[in-house]
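Narrative summary of target 7.
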Amino acid sequence: MKGRMIVLDHLHGREAAALMVDGRLDDLLIDDPAAPRPGAIYRAICDRPMKGQGGMTLRLPEGGSAFLRQGRGLSPGEPILVQVTGAAEPGKAVPVTDRVLFKSRHAIVTPDAPGLNVARSITDEAERGRLLAIAHEAMEGPFGLILRSAAEGVAEEEIAADIAAMLDLATAVTDDMNGRDPECLTEGDGPHLVAWREWRADTVVTEPGGFAREGVIDQIEDLRSPVVDLGAGTMVVEPTRALVAVDVNTGGDTSPAASLKANLAAARALPRALRLRGLGGQVTVDFAPMSKAHRRQLEQSLQASFRNDPIETSLLGWTPAGNFELSRKRERAPTLRLIDP
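Modeled conformation, tokenized:
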């Protein structure tokens, strides 16, 4: 099926959402009941500073712990408002930030960043002016606001309703800082709400059993294999405790042209392969052997591929051994851990 389709369903009793592009699984969200959702907001209690790192460990409800990377100026026992930024590695504290955001489909309320802004991707000056007028009319108080790219062309009433909902939530949460015990103030959005908020599609399937009918389950099962077919070769994606190792192979043809073709195909396929598998952290890619003269072309292909990926990724460059390294935010739990009953 051509076009973009969102499928909302459940997988082994867990809420899940899939984005299909031209019939191919392009993104996947599965709820993880064993961990706080990214976006959840807590009143946490400062526990102890991490000497040498500049961070602070925080106490969460029910004996949980979090880590705030920028913890200078905080004192043990002090309450602080934080938001979960990603998935915690096994045995490690939940990553959080003190720059809390309240996101809806069209608007983001920013308590710590006053001012009214419109997404840069909206370039039409008349539309930017219209959106800023809506923002000035709807906003009250000291908070800031960002109107997202999805607001372009949307009716004023719908945008204003989004702003009002996020403004009410931000006010309620920021006013709830009087307690001295850790508390979960918002649980964060599940896969269905995140998909509605972040993905754009021509069709949305909400009826139960959509994963089976639309072929999502079969494509999820394919993720159990580390091998990604590139057409021009294969790419093997294998997570280890220290990093994610990616190996690109050309098959029987070892000519320079075949190597470059496989490497460019791998560069295009890598963001999707990592995204669907929920993999982050350090990623080391062993590309097929090729001339150093082709490295710039490959780097440009990687930059283009990751430009539209929703997960923050830094391209670090080549190692002395000739591998390419990336650093990717751990925003999701590994998919293989979530798809088993």
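The chain has four domains: 4-31+193-216, 41-100, 102-177, 225-338.
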